[in-house]
Amino acid sequence: MSDLIEPMIHEDRLPGHESKLEPKPDWKPRYPGSNRLQGKVALITGADSGIGRAVAALFAREGADIAIVYLCEHDDAAKTKEIVEKEGRRAITIAGDVGDRDFCNHAVERTVKDLGRLDVLVNNAGEQHPDEDIRDITEDQLKRTFQTNIFGYFFMVQAALDHLGEGSAIINCTSVTMYKGSPKLLDYSSTKGAITAFTRSLSKNLIDKGIRVNGVAPGPIWTPLNPSGGQKPEDIPEFGKDTPMGRPGQPNEVAPSFLFLACEDSSYMIGQVLHPNGGDHTSS
């Protein structure tokens, strides 16, 4: 992109390091694998930490090799690679900005070259910046949030499409904020609305090719995104307590939704969105 906006990691410390987060998010799969992704290759964006790490760990336990795409948290990415390899699967790490079309092309090419194929694309990378007043959202922030959260999804699909075929799956990460709104995350929740519309439209566009497209809309999940700038420090102690379950979710409570949509268990589902959100039924 000629007008690429640089990642806002200096302003907001985003997306943050899981290695420095306390308490640590729970990424560990809860059950033995059953080979539901045996022999598959998955590319997961934002796989260094949070939901992406939990998805990588679970996919690996189910037999998939993993391409770990991330921005700049090399220590977290190395840990996720180690987790995948301990499950007996191959893993590669690819650092770069999903908001850059050229990088997305590179990430897919590297995945296919090093791991031999591509069967599952998980668009998970995202960023958010809280603002109480819409006038405080700068043009650069607005462009950057859309660049990562929806342009990046388009770019990854465009790059992956030649390598996906019958039986492949694309899973996009949207959010509870798309359904219930968020007064402090105006730009973020807007991108999540775009992701949901993209998911439903793309599912109809690709089903003739045998490629299934679905989405997951997590509620408040404890990941590095939140204390590293995605939420104001004074809001962190109450994070997730407004759900009916009274707590934030853990990444390993979200990962099974991605697994279900990636494997043949969901063979009659396209354009659908699953809602691991602690019981917030306003998002249904």
From TrEMBL:
SUPFAM superfamilies: NAD(P)-binding Rossmann-fold domains. InterPro entries: NAD(P)-bd_dom_sf, Sc_DH/Rdtase_CS, SDR_fam. Residues 8-29, 232-241 have a biased composition (Basic and acidic residues). The keyword Transcription regulation does not apply. The keyword Oxidoreductase applies. It holds the Pfam family adh_short_C2. Keywords: Oxidoreductase. Residues 1-32, 222-249 are annotated as: Disordered. CDD domains: SDR_c1. PANTHER family: NADPH-DEPENDENT ALDEHYDE REDUCTASE 1, CHLOROPLASTIC, NADPH-DEPENDENT ALDEHYDE REDUCTASE-LIKE PROTEIN, CHLOROPLASTIC-RELATED. NCBIfam families: PRK06701.1. Belongs to the short-chain dehydrogenases/reductases (SDR) family. This is SDR family oxidoreductase.
